[in-house]
Hints:
Blueprint: H1 2-40
Amino acid sequence: MLHSGMIILSGYQHLVKMRKKKKKKKKIKKKKKKKKKKLLR
């Protein structure tokens, strides 16, 4: 019982980490776009 619960928790934590990474990547992409606009100016 405990073992299956740990696997579910680790799987959930992995999904949360992936979602956080995706959000961070989107923010980084936006920052890069802003930098490109400044370089063009």
